[in-house]
Amino acid sequence: MKYKHFSMQQEPTFASLYISINQIKNMCINLDGLIMKKEGDLIDEPVKRNLFIQYKAFPGLEKLKTNVVWQEVEPKFHYRSQFPVIVNPSTIDKLQNFTFVLEVWDSINTAKEEFIGLVKIPLTSFVVSMKTTDSQIYSLNFLADQHCVYPMMISDGPLPIYSPKLGANVGDLYITLALGSSNQINR
Known about the structure:
By secondary structure, the protein is mainly beta. It has helices at residues 89-97, 124-130, 182-185, and strands at residues 3-5, 13-25, 38-39, 42-43, 49-55, 64-65, 69-72, 76-87, 99-109, 112-122, 137-139, 152-163, 168-180.
């Protein structure tokens, strides 16, 4: 199957959306919630926080979150999740218009959480990679193991954590986000 023209009568085609949240590095917010500044040759001591990540895999789904990593300057989450995706016109429209948003939170105590910042990843790249010259036909070659050994990747490394409160990037989130067949993702 080289190209697929979508119709309502066809068998569904499945893919998997894979997310791996690895680590946060280069956090530069002090305990007062301000960006750490240099004073002479001294810089504020890095702050140990209780961080976790919260996100929605797709619109309409409930928010998911990682475990809290307690008292770390550069927390390692080791979080992985995989979501089945039916590749059809409705899903392609959702991918075209959806931005994957990951929220970074600090768990001050069991009753109080502080929003640190967010990472935005538009999923449009997946759709652009599937488009052909005919707007109604999408190439699903990326799902065929004989054509592609690995899944389509949007991110595989650091992305900036943006703080709307401070209007600046406050750290880096190391994340992998991919779409492909189960065989491609589980290699």
